[in-house]
Structure formats: structure tokens, C-alpha cells
Amino acid sequence: xxxxxxxxxxxxxxxxxxxxxxxxxxxxxxxxxxxxxxxxxxxxxxxxxxxxxxxxxxxxxxxxxxxxxxxxxxxxxxxxxxxxxxxxxxxxxxxxxxxxxxxxxxxxxxxxxxxxxxxxxxxxxxxxxxxxxxxxxxxxxxxxxxxxxxxxxxxxxxxxxxxxxxxxxxxxxxxxxxxxxxxxxxxxxxxxxxxxxxxxxxxxxxxxxxxxxxxxxxxxxxxxxxxxxxxxxxxxxxxxxxxxxxxxxxxxxxxxxxxxxxxxxxxxxxxxxxxxxxxxxxxxxxxxxxxxxxxxxxxxxxxxxxxxxxxxxxxxxxxxxxxxxx
Length: 326
Prior knowledge:
Elements: H1 3-9, H2 16-26, E1 35-36, H3 39-45, E2 48-53, H4 63-73, H5 76-79, E3 83-86, H6 90-102, E4 106-111, H7 116-123, E5 128-132, H8 136-150, E6 153-154, H9 161-167, H10 169-177, E7 183-187, H11 192-204, E8 209-215, H12 220-227, H13 249-258, E9 261-265, H14 267-281, H15 287-297, E10 307-312
Parallel strand pairs: 2-10, 3-4, 3-6, 4-5, 7-8, 7-10, 8-9
Antiparallel strand pairs: 1-2
């Protein structure tokens, strides 16, 4: 393949038809998660909020959607040696789950610093884990080595058309169950969820606003959105560990085309939002899932008086290291 063809392929994105096809393909393998309300949180945010509860999705996160679409899109020939990915946890567990449903092996490269709860989430679904240093270069090298050794097919956590299409199905359900939304907010790390969400939403109704939310301590997506180039993420610490990932050219292209803005939240606001969801909605969410609400509580997103959809991206919290415990 010529360099120009490779570059063009790196920017290919799914359309609404691809997202709808993904919805049909993955229906037997994922939950149609509920949309939850909380009047007291509405009062805090000054808006009507509709929470898409992907924290109770298969494997505990929205990632089951994209992984299932990718795995079940493979031909028998492509799937016969299994699949491989790199992940801090949620995508790895999702890929292991989808591979198990198809009856093929899954190999997951994880950083040594991955939370133990996420390691166990991957391991108990039958994947073979290979640990590496917590750098993108180490992850890529370990994935490449597994591909050479096994012939497994790479399913990237977010830089994959099939994964993006699968992630967009959550927004289709949210729109269907909550008509009249004026805005939808999703967390952004690598951008797969926000890309799929924005394509699904804007293809149906361009007037609905789509926002990304990320930690101020890991604001590379906001910087990339402004500059138009993928900005590096410096070594950083944030409680929202699932969002410590940089965009790809593909996801940046989707986000720049379809997202209205990306805003950031402080660590204190993320902890406050997470605890508020636990205490008032009686559901478990991980820190990354609380970032959209944190942006609303801090006023980084002005949605007062609107009907707003929020995608609660996951519920794989480390119960031994809750942020409000001393």
C-alpha cells in the first residue's frame, strides 16, 4: 500500500448506516442499557440530565459495544488466530468477552500500572495478558510481537472504524429513549466513544450539540481540538485513568468535524461528581464516567435549562482505592 493510501485509510470513519449495522450486529451480545434520571442532580446542574448507564454494560463499560462489533465483523479466516489489543483495562476486558463469545483467543497487552480490578476483569474473561511499561511505544511493541508470534488480528481500542461504529450505538439508544435532547456529553480519552457519539448524533440532527469532557490534568484532546493536530499527552496524574490516552488522526478528524467543544474538569470536581452519582443514584461509576457531570457542576459547559444526555462510560472502579477514602 502506498503512503498516500495508508494516510487516507487512517482517516476513514463510519457513517450512520455503519453505526446502525453495528447496532444490529451486536444486539445479541450487549445490553440495551437504561437511561436514568436524578432530580437532585438536575437541580445542582440546572438542567434535565439523562444518564445512559453504560456502567452496567457487559464487562462494566461501553467498550463491549466497539469490541463486539469489531470481533463479529471479522471473517472466519481473519478471526482464526484470535485478536490482540493494548488496553489499561476496559477495552481489554471487552475484547476478551467478545472473543470468548466467538470462541477465539484474545491477547491483551496491559501497562504494569493498570489497576488490579481492571487486570482481573480481563483475566477472568479468559484473555492472555502480557504486561509492559506504561508507555505507548511499549504497548505498540508488545502488540506487534504478539501478532508475529500468533497471527492474531489487532483490534485497536479506538483507532478502528468498526470500534468507533460500535461505540456510536450507545448514542443511538440514548436519542431513541430520550427525545428532545439539546446536547449530549461524553468523556474523551482516545476519542472512540466521542467520535461514534458525534457521528450518530449529528447525522440524525445537526442541531443537537455534542461535547467532550476530559480531566484538566490530561487535556490533550482539548488542545488537539483547538490546534487541529494530535497533541501529545505529557506524563500526568489523574484519577480518571481511563482517559489518559491521546487521540489518533482518525478520531481527531471525527471530533473536529462533529463535536461542538471539549471542556475540562478539575480533579476535585471529578471526585465530587463521582461521589454524587454513587450517593444519589445508588450506582457504581468509575472516575472517567464522572467527568462529564464534573464539567457541568464546575460550569465548564453551559447547558442550563437544557435536556442533556450524559454517557456514563463505565463502572469498573477500584473499590480498594476510592478517592474519598483516607
